């Protein structure tokens, strides 16, 4: 697993840059990761990111858009506004979770 | 008497009932299966009806015929499970108590979940082939199609038989070519995924096959609504995709009673342990087949392999022994590719579909991730196997565990 530095932190990532260790994540790191993909985190972004962080250990998988939308109450449309282009991937990247599996 | 209740007499429910009826003593166990009707649908056949390969009456048979003596079949719409009282309520007030419950109510297409899908164009220019009625209606629409843009579309993952929309696309391409009208038809494959399939090696192979056939892929397309007046699909990121004929796979969801009973996730699937199918919340409840949330394909083959693991574990459990078998996510799917050929893919939780031979290294006779006619005959033979061997719960010479024998790991680039 490659190791990269993001701001002051040194973290483990996969080939596409997704964090591989749940515990290496923290909020300042999330801000840095977001900035790398051109996103400045607002309260609304944080609502989604916090949900993903809390859901992952219980669920064992990165939440899908539909799961975030249903359980965190953020419409899918809004997720596309907050994380333009590929919201599921971008949310996972910022939340320091594995890339969503896309289902088999 | 101990009571085992199985909800759903589809692929998984029927197999579990038949296998357990042989394994559990008749004088100690009462087995009840519940389904809404007495028509068992061979769902893989729905792919072929639009092209006239199967007649509609070849895919439906009475459920009762496939259930062994000593299994009670209750017909009725399931309304709710009460996991505390351990009862199941059916519409109309019937209540059935259980000691153990197996949820096998599958997943179904839900066109009502996409705004505009059930509008005036439903079954006029918008069709699905995941339901019996849709598949039969689509046969007429394909026959009458005079050309234009045909969009094959998936609302969202997961869907059962995730390769079926690809197969439909390949078969449609071949169908129009054979009718001498391929150049009048523009074929588009619109998917919420970033490519043809989820796993990289299979995705590259299948994507290449779409390319060769001049089928355009519209990737990362997550539909928000359908404007049926203008005949366009509108995505959440505001792309528009026009169609003359739309063949869509609506959102797939588990049964609504699962949500009403407080047992489901956001798509009404029952969260279970992925190796034993036991509910994470209620130890007397198991969910197998498409109804659970395990991270592998929703497919008849998975239902079959799961059943073998489940039945052995269940017999251990009720005799007070620990459950020792663990499911590895094994799935095995034929992929029809048109012109009388098909591919085969075989994979599990950890291993993606790889090229090679199946089930025996070098000999095959089937080949993995490569088109040939033998695979196609394998797929057609499967209908007979399904009715005569699989549903009755006979053992097939296919191991529940995936095997690496015959598989080739292509050299990893970069
Ligand atoms: C077009 C198509 C092609 C496919 N091709 C393949 C293939 O080639 N290979 C493969 O392996 N798989 C294939 N599949 C998938 C396969 O059919 C399913 O994965 C399999 O049937 C799942 O079995 P199950 O028992 O979980 O669900 P089902 O077989 O769907 O059974 C669920 C049962 O529950 C009943 N039920 C649901 N809700 C209620 C309720 N509220 N009250 C009463 N009864 C209820 C239903 O009536 C149904 O009988 C295909 C599916 C489709 C749609």
Automatic annotation (TrEMBL), chain A:
Sample GO molecular function, one term: sulfur carrier activity
Chain segments annotated as transmembrane: none
Gene3D superfamilies in alphabetical order: 3.30.1420.10, DsrC-like protein, C-terminal domain
Localization (cell): Cytoplasm
Biological process according to GO: tRNA wobble position uridine thiolation
InterPro entries, alphabetized: DsrC-like_C, DsrC-like_dom_sf, DsrC-like_N, DsrC/TusE
Keyword annotations of the record: Cytoplasm
Keyword Transmembrane assigned: no
Active site, UniProt feature: 103 (cysteine persulfide intermediate)
GO cellular component terms given for this protein: cytoplasm
Similarity remark: Belongs to the DsrC/TusE family.
PANTHER family with a match to the protein in the record: SULFURTRANSFERASE TUSE
Protein name, as recorded: tRNA 2-thiouridine synthesizing protein E
Species in which this protein is naturally found: Kribbella voronezhensis
UniProtKB/TrEMBL annotation, chain B:
Sequence ranges assigned to domain FAD/NAD(P)-binding in this UniProt record: 3-118
GO molecular function: oxidoreductase activity
Stored InterPro entries: FAD/NAD-bd_sf, FAD/NAD-binding_dom, SQRD
Name used for this protein in its record: Sulfide:quinone oxidoreductase
């Amino acid at each position: 697993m490659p190791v990269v530095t993001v701001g002051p932190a040194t973290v483990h990532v996969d080939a596409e840059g997704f964090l591989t260790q749940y515990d290496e994540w923290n909020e300042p790191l999330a801000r840095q990761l977001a900035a790398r993909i051109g996103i400045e985190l607002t309260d609304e972004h944080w609502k989604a990111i916090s949900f993903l962080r809390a859901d992952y250990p219980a669920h064992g998988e990165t939440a899908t858009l539909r799961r975030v939308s249903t359980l965190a109450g953020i419409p899918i449309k809004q997720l596309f506004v907050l994380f333009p282009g590929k919201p599921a991937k971008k949310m996972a990247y910022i939340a320091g979770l594995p890339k969503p599996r896309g289902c088999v | 008497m101990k009571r085992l209740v199985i909800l759903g007499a589809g692929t998984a429910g029927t197999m579990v009932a038949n296998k357990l009826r042989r394994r559990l003593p008749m004088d100690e166990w009462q087995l009840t299966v519940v389904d809404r009707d007495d028509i068992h649908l061979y769902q893989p056949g729905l792919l072929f009806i639009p092209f006239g390969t199967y007649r509609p009456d070849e895919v439906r048979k009475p459920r009762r015929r496939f259930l062994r003596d000593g299994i009670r079949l209750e017909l009725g719409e399931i309304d709710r499970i009460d996991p505390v009282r351990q009862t199941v309520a059916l519409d109309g007030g019937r209540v059935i108590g259980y000691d153990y419950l197996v949820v096998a109510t599958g997943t179904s297409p839900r066109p009502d979940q996409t705004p505009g899908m059930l509008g005036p164009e439903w079954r006029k220019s918008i069709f699905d082939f995941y339901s019996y009625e849709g598949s039969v209606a689509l046969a007429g629409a394909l026959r009458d199609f005079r050309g234009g843009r045909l969009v094959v579309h998936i609302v969202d993952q997961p869907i059962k038989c995730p390769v079926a929309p690809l197969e439909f696309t390949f078969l449609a391409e071949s169908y129009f070519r054979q009718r001498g009208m391929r150049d009048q038809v523009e074929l588009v494959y619109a998917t919420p995924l970033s490519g043809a399939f989820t796993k990289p090696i299979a995705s590259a192979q299948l994507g290449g096959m779409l390319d060769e056939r001049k089928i355009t892929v519209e990737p990362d397309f997550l539909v928000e609504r359908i404007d049926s007046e203008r005949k366009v699909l509108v995505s959440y990121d505001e792309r528009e995709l026009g169609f003359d004929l739309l063949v869509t796979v609506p959102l797939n969801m588990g049964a609504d009673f699962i949500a009403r009973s407080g047992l489901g996730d956001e798509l009404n699937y029952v969260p279970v342990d992925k190796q034993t199918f036991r509910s994470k919340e209620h130890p007397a409840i198991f969910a197998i087949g498409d109804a659970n949330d395990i991270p592998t394909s929703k497919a008849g083959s998975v239902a079959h392999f799961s059943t073998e693991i489940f039945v052995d574990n269940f017999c251990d459990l009720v005799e007070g022994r620990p459950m020792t078998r663990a499911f590895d996510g094994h799935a095995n799917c034929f992929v029809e590719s048109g012109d009388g050929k098909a591919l085969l893919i075989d994979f599990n939780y950890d291993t993606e579909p790889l090229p090679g031979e199946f089930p025996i290294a070098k000999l095959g006779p089937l080949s993995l991730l490569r088109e040939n006619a033998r695979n196609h005959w394998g797929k057609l033979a499967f209908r007979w196997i399904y009715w005569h061997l699989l549903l009755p719960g006979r053992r097939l010479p296919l191991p529940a565990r995936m095997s690496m024998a015959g598989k080739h790991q292509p050299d990893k680039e970069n």
